[in-house]
Design a protein that fits this description.
This protein is of the alpha/beta class. The protein is built from 18 helices and 27 strands. The protein has a nine-stranded mixed β-sheet, with helices on both faces. Strand 20 and strand 21 form a beta hairpin. Helix 3 packs across helix 4 and helix 9 crosses helix 10. The termini are far apart.
């Protein structure tokens, strides 16, 4: 009987992520599991350190379901803490260093974290935490790679723990993670996934080449669900994960060549910058099998450039951190559908609703709602927000509201129109900013553009465009405005073009339209007051 057959016979009914990592350590102990800068960890070494971390947490009072907060930059230790928390039965809470100190403190308090891990360079954020977190800091605050009063040293703690499995039984209903969404004000909502959901995700992507021999390059933050969606199948199905501390085009291409990368998850702005790198055409990227893109719309012209210039299949994924339905576009095989985000996949079900919550027929634009096998448990400590996020059909089936507007064409491909909150209503007409942005980005001098609603006394709202020009381009704002409006319908016309050096973006590449709107808020209020005074 083979070793793999023996494992199959002794494998528990529920086979969680952490147990799968341990299996790779048993079957392929000397195979490479993790690459980070100069460090290379095989499965046996990584698994032993995951055990140490799990035992460390248990010694510090972490029990099944307890939360462990992680505020850190990328490192091999980040992976150990993430997976070790799961092995201890804990729930990992990865936090964004881009959040303010106040937001971070409120997220830690909201999660109820028992332990906080922090990396060098982020001490100033933690120093601003209020006194209410003092008990955590005095007992279970761990410094990953620095020395400071009140912080326990990571390696010192690890050296004093066992590298044997703690033997904690993981069940599908146990909490896996809390991921805090990017909120515009206040504390972001904590999205809770359980182990069953995360394991089901592995089953969905197992046919996409993940497994022994797969080599994934991680260049987006591990506190983001889009990164976790590439990280988990790599480690759970036995691939090798290469982790970048920080994204840089030259470094990314160097690593991709040297490590013979097969899988990548990137956001649109990263694809754009990589293809614009002067050395891109000279690089040997023939090892790539699949490249994924998600988190923000990928313009059709950029999709085509990736397909034509970069070996391997390009898959665009449309979905939400909360879960629900997923659409997948194989851009390589569907070049005539590059203006879509693909078709429902993995057993997903989608519906299009009007403003009253009624289903619309194929071809009509409305809000997109979806359901699938992978759906969050809910927003942590926010039942009302969870309830508001759900729409039920006549049969009582639960769907998640995406907040996106769109429609399905006759071939079943989903076309995105806009975020519901970003739709511009001008003179009673609905204008979708993405329609205008798609035209803007075909201008020969425009690298990228974003359109928002600006206040207008005449029309209520009017489209305002922000544009980034190609290096050396000489086009004037009024020239771009006229060129674009000649290609738009009368009701869609842009009122003004503003040139910018770059567009404000989140850490995962989404354009922050709220930052573009901010200077216009006072103007909007003044216009609203004048309009109301006339009525």
């Amino acid at each position: 009987m083979t070793a793999s057959a023996t494992v199959e016979q002794t494998r528990p009914e529920y086979f969680d992520v952490s147990s799968r990592v341990a299996e790779h350590a048993r079957l392929r102990p000397n195979s490479e599991a993790l690459v980070f800068e100069e460090r290379r960890l095989d499965w046996q070494t990584l698994n032993g350190r995951i055990n140490r971390l799990a035992n460390l947490l248990i010694e510090r009072g972490v029990r099944s379901g307890d939360r462990v907060a992680l505020l850190a930059s990328h490192s091999a230790e980040y992976v150990e803490i993430f997976l070790g928390t799961l092995r201890a039965g804990g729930c990992i809470v990865p936090l964004s260093p881009m959040a303010s100190a106040d937001q971070l403190a409120e997220m830690i308090a909201d999660s109820g974290a028992k332990v906080l891990f922090l990396s060098e360079g982020l001490q100033d954020l933690a120093a601003c935490f209020p006194a209410s977190l003092a008990p955590l800091a005095s007992k279970n605050a761990v410094a990953i790679d620095f020395v400071a009063p009140g912080w326990a040293a990571y390696e010192q703690l690890m050296a004093g723990t066992s590298d044997q499995s703690p033997g904690v039984v993981i069940t599908p209903d146990m909490d896996f993670n809390i991921i805090y969404s990017s909120g515009t004000t206040g504390v972001p909502k904590g999205i809770v996934h359980d182990h069953g959901t995360r394991t089901m995700t592995l089953d969905q992507v197992s046919s996409l080449g993940y497994g022994p021999g797969c080599r994934t390059l991680i260049a987006t933050p591990l506190y983001s669900n889009l990164t976790i969606a590439a990280f988990l199948p790599t480690v759970a199905l036995g691939g090798t994960m290469t982790l970048m501390r920080k994204f840089d085009t030259t470094a990314y291409l160097d690593i991709a060549e040297r490590e013979r990368i097969t899988h990548a998850m990137l956001v649109p702005v990263q694809y754009q910058r990589l293809l614009a790198d002067p050395s891109f055409a000279k690089r040997d990227l023939s090892s790539f099998q699949i490249k994924f893109c998600t988190s923000a719309p990928l313009h059709s012209s950029l999709k085509l450039a990736i397909v034509e210039r970069w070996p391997g299949v390009l898959l665009e994924i449309y979905g939400m951190t909360e879960g629900g339905g997923v659409c997948v576009l194989n851009a390589t095989a569907n070049r005539d559908k590059l203006n879509t985000v693909g078709q429902p996949a993995f057993g997903a079900e989608f519906k299009i609703l009007d403003e009253a919550g009624r289903e619309l027929p194929q071809g009509e634009i409305g809000e997109i709602v979806s359901r699938g096998k992978v759906m969050m448990k809910g927003y942590h400590n926010r039942q009302s927000a969870t309830d508001e996020f759900i729409w039920q059909d006549s049969a009582g089936s639960r769907f998640f509201k995406t907040g996106d507007m769109g429609y399905f064409d006759q071939d079943g491909f989903l076309h995105l129109s806009d975020r519901k909150k970003d739709m511009i209503i001008s003179g009673g007409f609905n204008i979708y900013a993405t329609d205008l942005e798609n035209v803007l980005q075909t201008h020969p001098d425009v690298v990228e553009g974003a359109v928002i609603a600006a206040p207008s006394e005449e029309w209520g709202e009017t489209p305002l465009a922000f544009v980034v020009l190609r290096p050396g381009a000489q086009s004037k704002p009024e020239e771009i405005r006229k060129w674009t409006n000649e290609r738009l319908g009368k009701a869609q016309r842009i009122s003004e073009v503003v040139l910018m050096e770059s567009l404000p973006r989140s850490p995962v590449g989404k354009v922050l339209k709220r930052e573009l709107r901010r200077p216009y808020l006072e103007r909007a209020m003044a216009v609203l007051e004048r309009i109301q005074s006339k009525t």
